[in-house]
Design goal:
Order of helices and strands: EEEEEEEEEHHEEEEEEEEEE
Distance between the termini: 95 Å
Shape: rod-shaped
Structural class: alpha+beta
Helix content: 25-40%
Strand content: 35-45%
Number of helices: 2
Strand order of the largest sheet: 11-10-19-18-14-15
């Protein structure tokens, strides 16, 4: 990305080409008095990279860019902002707290992500650098290529800054990829576990249903005959069977009203209780009987159990 680094013999220059190597600032603290500033620092920030640094609770900080500033936003109301040309000042108010984390976004003149910078400043009472000279990687490279008079010390300094910025961005990318891969793996594992659980549940249900069906088949008795007068097995009844406890009569037609069911016990017939299953058209008579009579209006059907 920075082709000027390929040959150290090239005459290059760090950000000190644009700013003095030991520039200092005399900012005004929140109580109105002049405070002595620490030596300024120089940083190179890649597009999309967030810069984090401490900020003095009484002094604040100054940010100096290579292009005029178009817009500045600050996340906390107890920190003030001021901009003038390529410079931005972030200053505390009397309500600033030592625990403040101040988010600052700076947009420079021009379009593109190389003109947008994000910062997080952590308030502290310690003595820290109160001014920062900032360049994006592309601008720093142009400064390298445009100056032939700086020595190896400056070259190595900015090269370290650029390499560190690139390494930080690559590390952040790798961390994001790792988090995404972990999330996908977790989702996949959860999905696999759920799928396996559902398969096991389905297998158990299928086995239980098969066992119940097999037991029902073994207990079902279909040895029944029915007739109405001289007509054997009239079509109004589709089948008669029992499961050893109840007798089931399947009817093929409806509209005959409520039938009366009587069963013979000894020499007498008695009315028996039954339930009607509307979905299947089946009458379930409680108990087993050798002889039953089913009456629909004027039609009478006799049902006999053979065994």
């Amino acid at each position: 990305m920075i082709k000027s680094f390929r040959n150290s013999a090239l005459a290059v220059v760090c950000l000190a080409a644009a700013y003095p190597a030991h520039a200092t600032l005399e900012p005004v603290s929140s109580d109105g008095h002049t405070a002595v500033a620490s030596e300024c620092r120089y940083i190179v920030v890649l597009p999309g990279q967030r810069f984090s640094a401490p900020i003095n609770l009484k002094i604040g900080t100054r940010l100096r860019f290579l292009k005029p500033v178009r817009l500045v936003t600050v996340s906390l109301k107890n920190w003030e902002k001021e901009q003038d040309g390529p410079s931005v000042w972030i200053r505390p108010t009397t309500t600033a707290e030592p625990t403040d984390h101040v988010g600052v976004t700076v947009m420079l003149e021009g379009n593109g992500e190389q003109n947008e910078f994000d910062f997080v400043f952590k308030a502290t009472n310690d003595k820290v650098a109160s001014c920062t000279f900032i360049a994006d990687a592309a601008s720093a490279a142009r400064i390298f290529e445009g100056d032939q008079n700086k020595g190896d010390q400056d070259t190595a300094f900015l090269q370290r800054q650029l390499n560190a910025a690139i390494a930080d961005a690559e590390a952040a990318k790798q961390q994001a990829n790792a988090r995404a891969a972990a999330a996908v793996a977790q989702t996949t594992n959860a999905s696999d576990a759920y799928s396996q659980s559902m398969k096991e549940m389905h297998r158990q249900f299928s086995a239980q249903a098969e066992d119940a069906l097999w037991a029902l088949r073994r207990s079902i008795n279909t040895s029944y005959d029915w007739h109405s007068g001289k007509e054997s097995r009239p079509r109004i009844i589709d089948g008669v069977y029992d499961d050893g406890r109840s007798t089931f009569i399947r009817i093929t037609e409806s509209g005959f009203g409520i039938p009366a069911v009587t069963a013979k016990a000894g020499e007498n017939f008695y009315v028996v209780q039954y339930d009607y299953h509307d979905l299947t058209g089946v009458y379930e008579v409680q108990g087993l009987f050798d002889h039953m009579v089913l009456r629909f209006g004027t039609q009478e059907i006799t049902i006999q159990r053979r065994n």
